[in-house]
Write a structure and sequence with these properties.
Length: about 375
């Protein structure tokens, strides 16, 4: 009979005492947590709450407009009689891989009291320490900053990296992508560049012959970018000097156009594309234009870091290939160069590199 009753009652809460024909419920007390278990639960809830609050603060900070801005230090630079502006280009939406690596990096230093300028091309493969990311090619700083939520994002991390490498404050930056660069050149009516050595890019199946060329935006970008070239124009240092030629040609062209047109171009510069950006205000851009638009070419010092650096092979599996480093293994040569950049106006380059300084007067007249 007992076995029969057990089969009839699947609920373990019902337990027969003595068979009287009826069943009664015998309550079973739920297990109580021990003091240790309760303490652990409270601790976990507290940790979860703290993490939730910290995550909310981090998200608010990362996406707040102030966190994404690079400090504008132009007034401090003007007061110190030296303004350092980082000009760099990225591919933007027109780049085949659409990555965020800095394609070209130029440090422009201006001295208002003497109307001097220095243009230093920074190799994009310069091997440097990038904040908490370790050592990498310097062009990676922009991409790392964009992806990590660094203050000022990509421009902020690149500016800070250049500042530490050269031991100079970066007072402002200008970022231009391919689309904006082409539009700027087209809007000023094109530029004139003297190609000192003919070269042919075997990837793009295009090249330039020796002599003067009037370039629209697309051709100017090609002249500044081509690097799949056999011969002396095929290394990145040669490409950097061509980029300085283009910068000089844009400056020359701006000197010749109507000031009102220049002001309109400056005002619209930051809206040319989604990737083009500067932390300079319109009034600051106009101030710099008035100070330096008529600077003579002889007051502009063009610098390549090729004489101060050497090539080496990176054996790291994630980023193999050739990179650039200083011969001493640290940055003392670069810092000494920048500290004394206005003590001379002599162009710095190796004998195999093209001349940039005084190109307008040194080469045959434009036909």
């Amino acid at each position: 009979m007992q076995k029969a009753i057990s089969k009839m009652s699947p609920d373990p809460a019902f337990r027969p005492t003595r068979y009287t024909g009826t069943f009664r419920r015998v309550p079973r007390e739920p297990p109580r947590p021990t003091r240790t278990q309760s303490a652990v639960e409270y601790l976990l809830f507290a940790v979860f709450g703290v993490l939730l609050v910290l995550s909310a603060i981090a998200l608010y900070t990362m996406y707040s407009p102030k966190h994404r801005m690079v400090p504008n230090l132009l007034d401090a630079g003007l007061k110190a009689d030296r303004v350092n502006i980082l000009l760099f280009g990225i591919g933007g939406s027109d780049h085949p891989t659409q990555d965020q690596l800095a394609d070209s990096i130029v440090l422009i230093s201006l001295k208002p009291s003497t109307k001097q300028a220095a243009i230093v091309s920074i190799p994009r493969d310069l091997w440097v320490h990038i904040g908490s990311f370790g050592t990498h090619r310097i062009n990676y700083a922009h991409q790392a900053g964009q992806m990590s939520g660094y203050p000022g994002e990509g421009a902020g991390l690149l500016c800070d990296t250049v500042s530490r490498t050269f031991n100079q404050p970066i007072h402002a930056f200008v970022r231009v992508d391919f689309e904006a660069f082409e539009k700027i050149v087209d809007d000023i009516g094109g530029i004139d560049v003297y190609c000192q050595r003919s070269f042919y890019d075997f990837l793009f199946k295009d090249g330039f012959t020796r002599g003067w060329h009037h370039l629209d935006g697309k051709r100017a970008l090609a002249y500044a970018r081509y690097r799949y070239v056999l011969g002396p124009e095929g290394d990145n240092f040669a490409r950097e000097m061509r980029q300085q030629q283009v910068i000089g040609a844009v400056r020359t062209r701006l000197q010749k156009i109507n000031p009102q047109a220049t002001f309109s171009l400056i005002h619209a510069a930051s809206t040319l594309s989604s990737s083009t950006e500067t932390n300079l205000t319109t009034s600051q851009l106009l101030t710099l234009y008035r100070m330096f638009h008529d600077i003579p070419p002889t007051n502009v010092r063009h610098v390549s870091l090729k004489p101060l650096t050497e090539l080496f092979e990176v054996t790291r599996l994630a980023e193999p290939g050739t990179a650039v480093r200083t011969r001493s293994g640290d940055n003392r040569e670069l810092q000494a160069l920048e500290a004394n950049i206005f003590n001379s106006e002599r162009e710095i380059r190796t004998p195999d590199q093209i001349r940039v300084a005084g190109s307008e007067s040194s080469f045959p007249a434009i036909r």
